[in-house]
């Protein structure tokens, strides 16, 4: 079976700055992969290229064997690759429930069905169910802009999940969340994802989160993957320690 | 608990009462109601765009196109039936909006606003410089027939036209109300809030804007067509010029975006305001109009509909 995501010889340059250089990696269905690296190492560019936000200057990206390199973000999303963002992207003037309704409705309706009343009972039930899975049921009628950072991030991920993704990319999901709350946050997220056999790629700075929640680590430095290994092995790798963790870092 | 939406019932009742009232009001007031409702249709089109965060400074583009379509279809094709003229004018306007939409859907903010103004000024220039289009004076529009009936009395024809306008207005309000409740309608607010999220939910932002732009063009054209028939003439200054676009924006802000009926109420208030401002201060009526706009933005930024909603103790519908 072809990998869920296959990146072949992908490169990306912004002028003279190389953000990705000859990346070659395959991610199997159902894998949970952590993407680590110092700031500017090329992690987000990697995610942006897979989700169509940035186009590679060379190379190809395949999704279950289909070349998605030239596709715009919405077509990549329609195929089943969804994402959340470092800065949560929600509809701030809508309530939490309305955010979910819009996200679900876009993905369940096409063509003339887009003209059907958005408050259809099946959609409303699904929205309630998703909000419940993400612990947001009590926030149902709050405006998204009034949510605390953590809840807004959860909503962002819940909306991405509305498209029933086969691959979900989480860009720094715990940034801006206190260290006391991050494990609970990630447990909620991974619990919600566990039900769908979703392939997950997590860009993350927090190595505790990486160790606990992923099965494989891709470590980036200067646009290159310097290590591709299970967490324990990756976090004790000399290059990873030097370029990602810092030399004073000790892995428990 | 599910909230039952009675909007359309109230609008049906209001529309019926409006036609009844129109039977008894003096001619000048019927004219005001007719002109206001015609402009209200176009303003409702602008409101469709506004709810997606888009402001057009060229609302008169499609308004004028609809008006001139009626005049030219009557003059050149000999079409006299009001319904056919209305349908064709709305269609021509909508088609123009659809074609222009391929370009305009790429622009936001001031560029979207000014591109619309630019196209309206191109149409204005074409109308002013073209003798076949009546140049600066425009030309007359004959009294139309209704289902093959031609009224002997102009007053009866005007009343019939107003009745058609109210029915069309009600149908339009139902469609827009229905549209706003649909997924595509909600995507207006979604685009206004966050285009990136819309794209990453798998839907084209440009398509959302294109649909809204075309709908806005249809409504603008329909409004212009009614005004041309109600006024009995078309002219570039009152129908295509940027001042006409500015008036539509004024009415849009005066109305607020809370309801599909708001543009019609706002438009009627504007007609009254302008009429009385001209009467009270013939040389400084713009002062009154301007001061009203300032007060409105300061004290009722969500338009007069929000005042009604507060008075009647109802939260303004989103």
Helix % of chain B is over 70%
Coarse morphology of chain A: globular
Number of strands of chain B: 2
Largest binding interface between chains: A-B, 35 and 23 residues
Q: Poorly predicted ranges of chain A (pLDDT <50, ≥5 residues)?
A: none
What integer is the average pLDDT of chain B? Answer: 92
Give a count of the beta strands of chain A, DSSP E runs of length 2 or more.
Answer: 10
Structural class of chain B: mainly alpha
Structural class of chain A: alpha/beta
- Total helical elements of chain B: 14
Helix amount of chain A: 25-40%
Low-confidence stretches of chain B: none
Beta-strand content of chain B: under 5%
How many strands, which pairing sense, and closed or not: the largest β-sheet of chain A?
A: 6 strands, mixed
Figure out the total of helices of chain A.
9
Cα Rg of chain B:
19 Å
Account of the 3D structure:
The complex is a heterodimer of chains A (252) and B (318). Chain A has helices at residues 43-50, 73-79, 96-108, 121-133, 149-161, 182-194, 207-213, 231-235, 238-245; strands at 5-14, 17-27, 32-37, 58-63, 66-67, 81-84, 167-171, 199-203, 216-221, 224-229. By secondary structure, chain A is of the alpha/beta class. In chain A, the strands form 2 sheets. In chain A, strands 6-7-8-3-9-10 form a 6-stranded mixed beta sheet, sandwiched between helices. A 4-stranded antiparallel beta sheet of chain A has the order 2-1-4-5, covered by helices on one side. The two termini of chain A are 36 Å apart. The model of chain A has no long low-confidence stretch (mean pLDDT 89). Chain B has 318 residues and is mainly α. Helix content of chain B is 73%, strand content 1%. Chain B is built from 14 helices and 2 strands. Chain B has helices spanning 7-22, 27-50, 60-77, 82-104, 109-129, 154-181, 183-193, 195-199, 205-231, 236-239, 242-255, 262-280, 285-299, 304-311, and strands at residues 139-140, 233-234. In chain B, helix 2 (27-50) runs parallel beside helix 6 (154-181) and helix 12 packs antiparallel against helix 13. The longest helix of chain B is centred in the middle third of the chain and has 28 residues, at 154-181. At the A-B interface, helix 2 and helix 3 of A face helix 6, helix 7 and helix 8 of B.
């Amino acid at each position: 079976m072809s990998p869920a995501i296959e990146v072949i010889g992908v490169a990306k340059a912004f002028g003279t700055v190389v953000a990705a250089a000859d990346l070659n990696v395959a991610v199997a269905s159902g894998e949970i992969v952590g993407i680590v690296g110092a700031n500017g190492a090329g992690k987000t560019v990697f995610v942006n290229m897979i989700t169509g936000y940035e186009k590679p200057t060379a190379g190809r990206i395949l999704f279950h064997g289909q070349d998605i390199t030239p596709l715009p973000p919405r077509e990549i999303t329609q195929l089943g690759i969804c994402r959340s963002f470092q800065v949560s992207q929600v509809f701030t003037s809508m309530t939490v429930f309305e955010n979910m309704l819009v996200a679900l409705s876009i993905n369940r309706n096409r063509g003339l069905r887009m003209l059907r009343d958005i408050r259809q009972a099946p959609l409303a039930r699904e929205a309630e169910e998703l909000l419940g899975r993400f612990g947001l049921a009590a926030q149902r009628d709050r405006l998204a802009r009034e949510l605390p950072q953590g809840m807004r991030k959860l909503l962002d991920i819940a909306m991405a999940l509305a498209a029933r993704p086969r691959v979900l990319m989480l860009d720094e999901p715990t940034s801006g969340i206190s260290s006391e709350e991050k494990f609970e946050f990630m447990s909620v997220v991974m619990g919600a994802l566990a039900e769908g056999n979703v392939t997950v790629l997590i860009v993350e700075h927090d190595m505790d989160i990486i160790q606990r929640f992923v099965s494989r680590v891709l470590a980036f430095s200067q646009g290159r993957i310097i290590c591709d290994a299970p967490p324990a092995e990756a976090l004790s790798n000399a290059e990873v320690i030097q370029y990602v963790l810092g030399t004073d870092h000790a892995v428990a | 608990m599910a909230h039952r939406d009675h909007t359309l019932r109230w609008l049906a009742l209001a529309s019926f009462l409006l036609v009844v009232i129109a039977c008894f009001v003096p001619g000048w007031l019927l004219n005001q109601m007719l002109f206001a409702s015609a402009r209200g249709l176009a303003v409702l089109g602008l409101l469709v765009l506004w709810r997606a965060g888009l402001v057009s400074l060229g609302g008169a583009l499609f308004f004028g196109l609809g008006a001139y379509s009626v005049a030219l279809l009557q003059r050149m094709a000999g079409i006299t039936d009001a319904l056919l003229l209305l349908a064709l004018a709305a269609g021509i306007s909508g088609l123009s909006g659809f074609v222009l939409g391929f370009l305009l859907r790429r622009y936001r903010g001031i560029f979207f606003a000014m591109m619309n103004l630019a196209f309206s000024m191109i149409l204005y220039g074409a109308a002013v410089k073209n003798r076949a289009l009546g140049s600066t004076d425009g030309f007359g529009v004959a009294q139309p027939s209704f289902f093959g009936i031609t009224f002997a009395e102009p007053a009866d024809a005007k009343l019939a036209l107003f009745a058609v306008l109210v029915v069309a207005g009600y149908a339009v309000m139902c469609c827009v109300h229905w549209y706003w409740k649909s997924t595509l309608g909600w995507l207006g607010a979604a685009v206004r809030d966050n285009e990136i999220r819309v794209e990453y939910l798998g839907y084209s932002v440009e398509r959302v804007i294109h649909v809204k732009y075309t709908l806005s063009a249809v409504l603008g054209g329909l409004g212009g067509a009614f005004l041309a028939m109600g006024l009995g003439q078309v002219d570039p200054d009152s129908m295509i010029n940027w001042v006409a676009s500015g008036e539509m924006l004024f009415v849009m802000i005066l109305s607020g975006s809370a309801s599909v009926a708001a543009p019609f109420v706002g438009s009627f208030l504007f007609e009254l305001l302008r009429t009385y401002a001209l009467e009270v201060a013939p040389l400084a009526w713009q002062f009154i109009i301007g001061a009203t706009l300032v007060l409105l933005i300061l004290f009722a930024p969500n338009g007069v509909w929000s005042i009604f909603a507060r008075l009647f103790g109802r939260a303004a519908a989103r």
